[in-house]
Design brief:
By secondary structure, the chain is mainly alpha-helical. 68% of the residues lie in helices and 0% in strands. The chain has helices spanning 15-43, 47-74, 76-85.
């Protein structure tokens, strides 16, 4: 996903939609970087390199968390879903008809 992968003409999108798009693209990139650092850390036998890679992964988690918080503050519907699902006990998907 890149900033150029819009599904509608840029000139028809609101500033809010473009800001949200930037946040979402950035979040995807941070999550991808977390995954890459974890894989690289698992793949090395060098303890010091592993520590550096895990440290870098933790930085990417911080960045991802900040982007999620920006989305929560700026996208009401997303905030509602976070409130509904985060920090709850029990199954993530409730049983019964949806």
């Amino acid at each position: 996903m890149s900033s150029e992968e819009l599904h509608a003409p840029r000139e028809r999108l609101s500033k809010h939609t473009m800001a949200m798009h930037s946040a979402v693209v950035s979040l995807v990139e941070e999550l991808q970087a977390m995954d890459w650092y974890r894989q690289r850390a698992d793949d090395t036998d060098d303890a010091e390199l592993k520590a550096v890679l895990v440290h870098n992964m933790d930085d990417e988690m911080e960045h991802a968390a900040m982007l999620i918080e920006w989305l929560r503050r700026n996208v009401t519907e997303f905030a509602a879903q976070l409130t509904k699902f985060l920090g709850r006990e029990g199954p993530i998907v409730p049983s019964g008809p949806s």
